[in-house]
Amino acid sequence: MLSKNQIIAVSSAVLLTFVLYFGFGEVPKAEPPAATKTKEDKTYETVLLASKEEATAKLTPEQKNTLHTLESVLSSTKNDSTKVESLKQLASFWYQSGKPEVSGYYADMVSDILKDKEAYQITGTTYRIALSEGGLDEKVRDVCSRRAIRAFEKAIRLDSTNVNYQMQLAMVYVDKPLEDNPMKGILMLRELNTKHPENADVNIQLGRLAIKTGQFEKAVERLKKAVELSPGTVSIYCLLADAYTGLGDKTNAGLAEKKCKK
Predict the structure, then answer these.
(1) CATH 3.40.50.300 is right for the domain spanning 4-196
(2) Within 10 Å of residue 187's Cβ, how many Cβ atoms?
(3) CATH dotted code for 199-262
């Protein structure tokens, strides 16, 4: 059975790979770069470039050659379209190398050139995948969280009706709760559920969180609703199996697990 993190990572990886390989569309004319970088910009670059340097040292000779080629193309071009393609290839390279936080660094640059809602969504998703991984340095986690929030907020400003963007933003706060407001992400999800009770994804996330906190009856209720709304989503049954197992209901857990494996 897929774990909770695996479900997030697999679905997000499919979306990320598709977009990175097939592109975001036309490249708009780039805006002039800002004269100075903010303190946050400098911090995130410093932290992620340090993570990249550490990861580079662990690459195979073949991987290092590939990376060198990609970076050479990027450094030699002034054409916006070529630059975007080079950045996307670097983002894809690092994602496939198991370093989503470094992939996010390059996806971040792509989204800031394109200023496209889907590009911002991909950036935020990439950083969220990094947050889901264990063993990540706390400074890196903090940067990934803040950059994911920035990306999703920008996507929302471009499309305020998109529930998925709002849900993903809420999940960043769940992934890494604020010290002064640890319930913010959960409250955001509940508000979304009130406004959009027929949204399957919101019910799935609330069901996932209910399992995490041991509220198995609530989890079953949320996930059964999600099944009604999206019966073809296999991951719901995987979560239902966990919820029923938590309740000690072996019969329903077994039935859900069979559908999870299909």
Answers:
(1) no
(2) 12
(3) 1.25.40.10
pLDDT > 90? residue 214: yes
Domains 4-196 and 199-262 share a fold: yes
The 8 Å CB, 24+ separation contacts for 233-236 are 233/200, 233/204, 234/259, 234/260, 234/262, 235/2, 235/7, 235/11, 235/204, 235/260, 236/200, 236/204, 236/207
Amino acid making up residue 253: A
Model pTM score: 0.83
Residue type, 11: S
Q: What is the pLDDT of residue 125?
A: 97
228-238 average pLDDT score? 95
The domain locations on the chain are: 4-196, 199-262
10 CB neighbour count, 10 Å cutoff: 11
Name the pLDDT band for 144 (thresholds 50, 70, 90).
Answer: very high
